[in-house]
Amino acid sequence: MVDEGSASELGAELIRVLVVDDHPVWRDGIRADLEASGVAVVVGEGSDGGEAIELAHEHMPDVVLMDLRLPTVSGVDAIRQISEDMPHVRILVLSATGEEQDVLEAVKVGAAGYILKSETRADIVDAVRRVHRGEPVFTSGLAGLVLSEFRRVAGKESAGEPRLSARENEILRLVAKGYTYREIAEKLFISHKTVQNHVQNILRKLQLRKRYELMRYAIRKGLDRVAE
Amino acid sequence: MAAINASGTSEVEPGMRGLWLGVLVYRWATFVWMAAVALALAIRQDLRRPGLALAAVLVILAWNVWFSLTAGWERTLDRRIDLGLALALLPLSGLVMNEEAIRNTLFFATSFPATAALTFGAGSGVAGGLFAGAALSLGLVASRAANGLPPDELTDDDWGVLFNGVFYYLSAGGAAGVVRRVLVRSAGERSLAVEEATRQREKAARLAEREALGREIHDSVLQALALVRKRGKELTGPSVSAEEIHELVELAGRQEQALRVLLNEPHAEPPEGMVSLRTTLEAAAFGVQGVPVSVTTVGPAWLFSTEVKEVQGAVRQALENVAEHANATRATVFAEALDGELVISIRDDGGGFDYDESRLSRDGKLGLLKSMKGRIEALGGSMRVHSAPGRGTEVEFRVPVRRGSDDG
Q: Of A5, A126, B115, B135, which residue is 20 to 30 A from A196 by alpha carbon distance?
């Protein structure tokens, strides 16, 4: 194991992480990686969605790092529950297969980012750090999905439904093309922070969209019942 | 029709059985009625030849018993014999009855012969039913002649009675034929619907199987491969041959990517003669050595099969260029359908360069770029390169969307 610099980041407190994965080998690996980095400490390990919800309540972690394909309660359901109960807890999806549709759903119900299991240790640690800072962690694949999602909405006009601004579209497209936030900032002559804010807004609109979706569904159901 | 019969026989059965049972009940009811009328006429001494009448009733009784017990309606020959007997019965009625009686009282054979028309219709369709009805109608007219009443001596009332009978026989045969046709057709439709439902069920089962397979792969192979890839990158040290490890990492990465492609098959089926743009790009990115490539597309987009080779070739060349010269840590292929064009971009985070076509041409470095450009221009498209030292490179292909893709 390579030691990655100082034991703690500028004397800051360690990021408290809950790791949820049904494979012990992965949990062990992630724990080793995070703790060796000196940035984070693993406060709990869960193997399914139900445990994830319980442990989140018990430990109040800063970041939940979780797989989506979990036994009993699915990852998406667990994320929905955790972000409803504890909105301050950041959730980072760590997934092996790129099950993109599930990832999109997870982000809609409150996940703050997504990273592939095949990324290096440094990348995963960095993603935890960024998510903890409040920075949304995107992959180009996820950006592509979000673009598809908003384009789909644009086809079906619906008043009041959140849409992406031209700038947000541009930034999302650059993320999808593999540009980092820093590269986007340089390219568009804006600050790194501004790029982050735009991405954050895109996420918020995506989550808002989910709420609209649910509301429309509820209204339709309600009308059906009246019609009966 | 063969297919319908093969799988639809059991579907025809319930309706057809009902039809045959109805015809059989009619057969016996009208036979009993005929026998009763004969008996009444005999008692009133209105029969010219009671012996012949008795013989006819007995023959028909015997035939009906045989026909009912052996399901004679199912055999063409028996149906013909049945019609023959019914036909014979009509002129025979004329012989049996008095001249007075045939005009003023109930007719001997009355409605029984209609059974033959019904049987014919139910057994061989509308045409068969009408044919039997027409034959019986002729028999009815012949019965008057047999009774000693030639057609020119018939009164208007007599003709009315005859036409009534003719209409009766024709409509019985025709109606039974129509019922048969409806039964067969709806059975056919039902069996088609059953086939379609079976196909849907099979499709759902295949999808479920595939999903289960995907989960299985996820749990074993992908986990292991991703782990090897991740750990492999960290294990590189003086004690292990770096090249060896690198090879392992590359192998694992390729396997993982191949499985990923397999699992993430496009959700929508491409239209006839077209191929998913995503699949094409995944194929172009597959096995590129030296730089990890990710492929991202927006929404479903299609390419004509004839365009696949050029697009794939151009993207592949761009990626190999990145792998060889860019010194990049990653490359991304991004594509979307935008305002009637497919926009495909290949972006890397490598060293970048001053893109100046005329200088590159002077330095003899334009070859590969020209080849890519040629491929895309052959499809009526265009190529652009954005690059600057230290800023990576983005190659953008734009290909016009021809009819067949409705993605805007």
A: A5
pLDDT digits (tens, 9 = 90+) for A33-54: 999 999 999 999 999 999 999 9
pTM here? Answer: 0.57
Nearest Cβ partner for B299 among A116, A148, A177: A148
Taking contacts as CB-CB distances below 8 angstroms, the residues of chain B near A144 are 296-298, 334
The ipTM estimated for the assembled molecules is: 0.77
Record: contact B230-A121, CB cut-off 8 A: yes
A120 at the B interface (CB within 8 A)? yes
- Compute the distance between CA of residue A216 and CA of residue B336 in angstroms, rounded to an integer: 29
Q: Which of A26, A97, A173 to mutate to test the interface with B (most CBs of B within 10 A)?
A: A97
DSSP letter, residue B97: B
Contact yes or no for A180 and B349 at CB 8 A:
yes
The tens digit of pLDDT for each residue in A64-90 reads 999 988 888 889 999 999 999 999 999
Q: Taking the domains of chain B in order of start, what are their residue ranges?
A: 2-197, 267-408
Interchain proximity B294–A178, CB inside 8 Å: yes
Select the residue of A96, A147, A187 nearest B218 (Cβ to Cβ).
A96
Identify which of B41, B339, B347, B121 has the alpha carbon closest to the alpha carbon of residue A173.
B347
Assigned superfamily of B267-408:
Histidine kinase-like ATPase, C-terminal domain (3.30.565.10)
User: CB within 8 A of B389, min separation 6: which ones?
Assistant: B351, B352, B353, B354
State pLDDT tens for residues A186-228: 999 999 999 999 998 998 888 888 777 777 777 776 665 555 4
